[in-house]
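Write out structure tokens for Tetratricopeptide repeat-containing protein.
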Amino acid sequence: MGFKTAIQTSKAMRKLVMIGCNIISVFTLMNSVNGQGNPVADSYFIKAADFRKNMKTDSALIYYEKAAVQFQNLGNIEKFVDSYNQIGVILTRGDAYEKAKVYLDKALGEGLKSLDSNNLAIATTYISLGVIYNALAKYDQSLVYHYKALSIRRLKLGDYHTDVATSYGNIGNVHRNNKEIDKSIAAHLEALKIREKILGETSAEIIGSYEGLGNAYREKKEYGTSLGYFERALKNKLIQRGEGHKDLIKYYKYISEVYYLMGNKFKGDQYKQKSENQI
């Protein structure tokens, strides 16, 4: 290869590299505009999650709001919905139900307008609204939202998924609050079946199913069955936490209450004392 040819080849290579860099820049810009990636919005969201983890909820709310604005401007509606969902959860846990509903209704409106109606972010919005209406004792409305969430999760995740089990558990709790005990039991049994298959009988998550069934059977006055589920919940909690942990208090109290309802004062007093010893 001659000297002149080498120079021409070198110039051509540099030109190709520059073209390649420009193409990458264009794709990066397009991804940003389409909401596929934005460092500022993502940093706000991450910072909000960190504040939330450290119980600094006021700061978390500010940064979730900042993130939501950025995501909406970028057209990333799924992340916008996610940001507003997080705000709704924080406000709900602070008993600010009406304020939470404002954010969740906006999330739902934008989500249904711009996303697939079966998007999992929309399922999360439905769940959050279901939680609020349950807290407000509007159980029928709560169930509407929880069943919508369940339908989406089953469609997107399949029947055997932990999130599907969680939805069944939510439904079971609301049916119990609504005095629909048989429906509550059916929902909790579905959650239990899924959790047993996926997680095993000694998992932390399965405790929620045992607790839900214990409460439902107690309402039905089937105290022996109720006691059995509470004992299983306690056994698992002991495996997870060990003797002397404060998380055991609730389960000792449950068992104590059922023994009293069964007319067994001795056992009731025994478990009541155990609950007091954990404090």
